[in-house]
């Protein structure tokens, strides 16, 4: 006779914890939701206010200044394709979500990465957490977002920040820990304080690696924002989701191509910034 072990009620514990957090911190989550929604609406309205050719000209100028003329021409061509496909407004909505989610993720990740680089105990404790976060399927992050913030773009921001944060933490920690010991010893010899070593030696030397982490965060944010269309997020993801529901493969591929164009533009732009910092 087989021995039956009692089933661990892990799902019930998680549901109970989410219910408790939702009820106890509802005031906090509502406040965060209002502030986040205001930021989303403000940035989205500002980008929508610009005419299509105006935003294309601004992005082309940024690409030319940061990278080269080839990237500027490619940016104009790619954005023109999105405009021609009638996906300009969804692209703006997706860009808004990516920008806000990336800013929030980086604002949290860089201080955590610096702290983990300077504290061996914190480093050992946070690495398994990051492994867990990066191994968890992306769809799972949508589940706790709904009870906290409901359906919509705020929940998408919440899930995207959690999903896209680990690379920025990892690369920040890696960059600081890879600063040559000789430079640290030289700073110590000149009597530099811990803060001076961090701001004038470790962070400047690790900046290219930190930028690589930010690049990965942007790419993960873009992929998660598309997935978050399942919980009501606006943008290109909602166009893909709508095409799936209505069995319109052509519309789905058009929205997918627009996502690829936006991803390539953001990737090349951040890589160019990284190369500038390296040089």
Question: What does the secondary structure layout of this molecule look like, with pairings?
Answer:
Blueprint: H1 10-24, H2 26-49, H3 52-66, H4 69-84, H5 88-118, H6 120-135, H7 142-149, H8 153-177, H9 181-189, H10 194-227, H11 236-245, H12 249-278
Helix pairs in contact: 2-5, 2-8, 3-4, 4-12, 5-6, 5-8, 5-10, 5-11, 6-8, 7-8, 8-10, 10-12, 11-12
Explain what this protein looks like in three dimensions.
The protein has helices at residues 10-24, 26-49, 52-66, 69-84, 88-118, 120-135, 142-149, 153-177, 181-189, 194-227, 236-245, 249-278. The mean pLDDT is 85. By secondary structure, it is mainly α. It has a domain at 88-276: MetI-like (MetI-like fold), CATH 1.10.3720. α2 packs across α8 (153-177).
């Amino acid at each position: 006779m087989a021995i039956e072990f009692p089933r661990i009620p892990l799902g019930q514990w998680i549901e109970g914890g989410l219910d408790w957090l939702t009820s106890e911190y509802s005031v906090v989550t509502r406040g965060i939701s209002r502030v986040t929604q205001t930021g989303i609406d403000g940035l989205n309205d500002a980008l929508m206010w610009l005419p299509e050719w105006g935003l294309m000209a601004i992005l082309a100028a940024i690409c030319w200044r940061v990278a080269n003329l080839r990237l500027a021409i490619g940016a104009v061509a790619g954005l023109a394709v999105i405009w021609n496909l009638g996906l300009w407004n969804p692209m703006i909505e997706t860009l808004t979500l990516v920008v806000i989610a990336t800013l929030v993720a980086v604002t949290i990740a860089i201080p955590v990465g610096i702290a983990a680089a300077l504290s061996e105990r914190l480093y050992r404790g946070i690495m398994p957490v990051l492994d867990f976060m990066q191994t968890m399927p992306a769809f799972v992050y949508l589940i706790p977002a709904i009870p906290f913030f409901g359906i919509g773009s705020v929940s998408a921001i919440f899930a995207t920040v959690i999903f896209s944060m680990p690379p920025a933490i990892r690369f920040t920690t890696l960059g600081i820990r890879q600063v040559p010991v000789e430079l640290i010893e030289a700073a110590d010899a000149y009597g530099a304080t811990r803060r001076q070593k961090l701001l004038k030696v470790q962070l400047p030397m690790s900046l290219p690696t930190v930028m690589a982490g930010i690049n990965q965060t942007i790419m993960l944010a873009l992929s998660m924002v598309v997935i978050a269309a399942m919980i009501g997020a606006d943008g290109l993801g909602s166009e893909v989701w709508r095409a799936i529901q209505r069995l319109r493969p052509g519309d789905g591929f058009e929205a997918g191509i627009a996502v690829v164009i936006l991803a390539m533009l953001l990737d090349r732009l951040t890589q160019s910034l990284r190369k500038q910092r390296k040089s």
